[in-house]
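Minutes, project check-in

Agenda point 3 was the complex the collaborators sent over. CS summarized: two entities, 420 residues total, and the question is how they sit relative to each other. Sequences were read into the notes so everyone works from the same version.
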Amino acid sequence: MPPVTGTELREVAERIWGTLFEEPLQPADDAAEMVDDTFLTGCVHIEGSHQAAVAVRCPVGLARQFTSKMMGVHDPSPADVCDALGELTNLTAGSVQALMPPPSELTLPTVVENSDHHPQSSYQTIAQAHFRFDSEPLTVSLLCAGPET
Amino acid sequence: MPSLRVLIVDDSRASRMMLKSCLAGVECETEEAENGEIAVEKCKTGLFDLVIMDVHMPQLDGYEAARMIRGFEKEKNRAPVPMVAVTAIDPAQAAIKTQAAGFTAFTTKPVKAAALQEVLKSATQGKFCPPEPETSPTAPDGKDNRGRLRTLLAGFSTETDELASALKQHRSMFLSEKKNEVSVAIAAMDFGDFGTVRNLAYRLKGEGSNFGYTKISDFGKSLVQSVEKRDIRTARLVAQKLLAYLARAIEQMADQPSPSPVDTTGGPGPK
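CS then shared the predicted structure for the full assembly.
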């Protein structure tokens, strides 16, 4: 059984976004196409009882929107956008960590552009939740190492 | 009352800005540090009334920085500054680590202004005075982000039906989740699984206030205390009272068009 289910992942993300932003995340059935858009992926590893990683992926435009709301600035710099998406990923990973058996440690967030960011080739996606925010797509994934996890 | 000097330490600029916005309306001067090293230096050279610090940072993390600040205070015979850890990590793990590092209190991210201000008030023994509700920063689109959320969470029906409905659903989900967790905790008690009970108790303690349910946090705190003492009888009693409180809160929420999250059920607190 996976350490965290897709439903739990969905609830975690809805709770975090609902706390930070006026507009709640709208659940979506599947991953939206981001082929024509530049997108960003934030990633934080959870190291401990499970070797896992949480990834948050969305178009740059949406990441900029989050940044504006979080920082209260009109025109965030690319560094600010990475910072804000990294922080959102960190918050998500922290809540996912709480659902997994202790002890474990979180790594610092990384943000990459235009990549299906799988932290390591041996990692498999074990839970995923797709959303829309202001009509833009957003996907939260939990990846784990090893066949059992 | 003189203005408080507050040091905000977080490697994320977005997080520092959100923490600052939580202090909107409070008579205070804020300084920022982007890692533990800078925080330690600032604490050595300046006097602060309060330090709010993330624990998860590069170079020098919040735990180590807190230890160094406490060491410096001891060496110089300075009064310990109240330090509040703000962290995204699992509350059950953070509680132990932050206490060991010398933090006065901790709260979990994402932080709500009201919850943070309650923690700060407690950590500074009342020196920090939360402002009256209403004040808030203005977002670039002219909308009043956090203030609007706070106003809604305080039960005022000044917002759109859509937003109120979403928040109601959000809180309802939280209450149901907590009710399930308490049932799990009671079952774990039957099996003598204190680890599970303890983890769930810490989560209740940390998350209740974040959602405006201070009573859930109080119950969680009592549960933590009884579990730490291996007092299964009290733990079970607290869990059962909490279960009843949650059932009433869920029932009231279903009946109310614009529910208030804060202790409207009037249930007795854990004794």
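Noted in discussion: The radius of gyration of chain A is 14 Å.
Follow-up: revisit at the next meeting once the mutant set is ready.
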